[in-house]
TrEMBL record:
Residues 5-164 form the N-acetyltransferase domain. This is Protein containing GCN5-related N-acetyltransferase domain. Gene3D superfamilies: 3.40.630.30. GO terms for molecular function: acyltransferase activity, transferring groups other than amino-acyl groups. Pfam families: Acetyltransf_7 (PF13508). The keyword Transit peptide does not apply. Keywords: Transferase.
Length: 181
């Protein structure tokens, strides 16, 4: 079973569960919410087996996405923080969580993209989950901070094959996203 909760509705217990799984999957003790990483519109996903939460992830709204100079009209969401409790890794639960997130996105007509470090070697996982992966596409996304624009470094991008925003990128158009997404 998957529970979806908006950031503004997260209980303290849900925050603790999210932090515990996110941190243990990454060997970090950091509180993801202490760095002002909780936004009211974000969507948090909790995958449960019986009565135990075993995997978490989130979709973060990326506001003010521009294609060249036009505001992009389709909601764009970044998939992030996909984490499986180490005791349950390698059991297909990460893939199940991502499939649930994808189903939610399709049902709600959301464009999903994700950025990740090329060195993380997660390509196989995202491909197994039905995403396309392009380790050069990050250069097509430009970060806008006020009037300053810079490249989106060297990050790889995951996306749905038929996504209209991605189709525009393949036409060599630039996409501008806010730094704070």
């Amino acid at each position: 079973m998957v529970v979806v909760t908006q950031g503004r509705e997260l209980s303290e217990n849900q925050k603790l569960i999210f932090n515990k799984i996110w941190g243990s999957a990454r060997n970090k003790s950091e509180d993801i919410f202490s760095r002002k990483d909780l936004r009211p519109q974000d969507l948090y996903f909790f995958l449960h087996t019986e009565d135990t939460c075993v995997a978490v992830g989130r979709l973060r709204e990326i506001p003010d996405v521009y294609l060249e100079k036009e505001l992009w009209k389709i909601p764009v969401w970044g998939m992030s923080s996909i984490s499986v409790d180490p005791k349950y890794q390698k059991s297909g639960l990460g893939k199940k969580l991502v499939e649930e997130i994808k189903n939610y996105a399709v049902k709600n007509k959301l464009c999903i993209i994700g950025f990740y470090d090329k060195k993380s070697s997660l390509d196989w996982f995202y491909r197994k989950c039905g995403f396309e992966v392009n380790d050069q596409m990050g250069k097509s996304f430009l970060i806008k901070t006020g009037d300053e624009i810079k490249d989106n470094c060297d990050e790889a991008v995951l996306y749905f094959k038929n996504d209209p925003l991605i189709a525009e990128i393949f036409k060599n158009k630039k996409v501008y996203i806010p730094y704070t997404w």
